Amino acid sequence: MLEVTIDGRPIHAEKDECILSAAKREGIVIPTLCHHKALAGLGSCRLCIVEVDEGSGPKVVASCVYPIKRAAIILTTSEKITRLRRGILSMLRDRAPQDPYLQRLCAEYSVPHSTRYVLPPKLKCVLCGRCVAACAALGNGAIATVGRGTAKKVSTPYDTDSSDCIGCGACAQVCPVDAIACIETKDTRTIWNKTFRLIPCERCGVPWVTKEALDVVREKTLPGTHGHVGFCPDCRKKEVLFTTRRL
Description:
Layout lengths: L1 E5 L2 E5 L5 H7 L23 E5 L4 E5 L10 E3 L3 H17 L4 H9 L21 H8 L6 E3 L6 E3 L14 H5 L7 E3 L3 E4 L2 E7 L6 E4 H10 L12 H14 L1
Parallel strand pairs: 1-5
Antiparallel strand pairs: 1-2, 3-4, 3-5, 6-7, 8-9, 9-10, 10-11
Helix pairs in contact: 2-3
């Protein structure tokens, strides 16, 4: 265990634990956007920047990916960090002006309205990279960031339907600003220019998952442990609860 000081509060942290994790455990709030507990740190949105001094002077780092390796003094709301975070929020708000979370943070940090960053119209995407990371974690890589500068975006190859997309919807689920269009009817799901047929839950009969996504899950599940893979999330929870009560 290592002892570090965050905003004047001494805390203990595991060696190589990221600053964000240690701060969160102690109830110290650091704003984030690209961070997701189910994904590896991305450090792309930069909202979680903090100042770290490990003995050789302060430096600005992304707390979601910066590992604690030695005693350090960490500041999450210094004058410099507040100024930088305010600028980052201004740019993010320009890309997703209607997002409630960004609106709240902008109000909290007193971010003035500005036309400094003139960007072309976007579908709210803040280029945090969560969706790309979620797709990669499934081993599909159906989407990626393409282009440069203000033309940079997340898309499928050549903006067409991707043969690698399984319609799982994980990308839309982890998007922090609801930028990914995922349209569902009673038995279909349309995402990334591709329409999938939804198959029914093996317990309640309600269509909920694409065959392609279910096949991938079954392929990655250890033999003999498929269990209730074909159950929708609600039925899976009920089955787990029922089994637990029986035990």
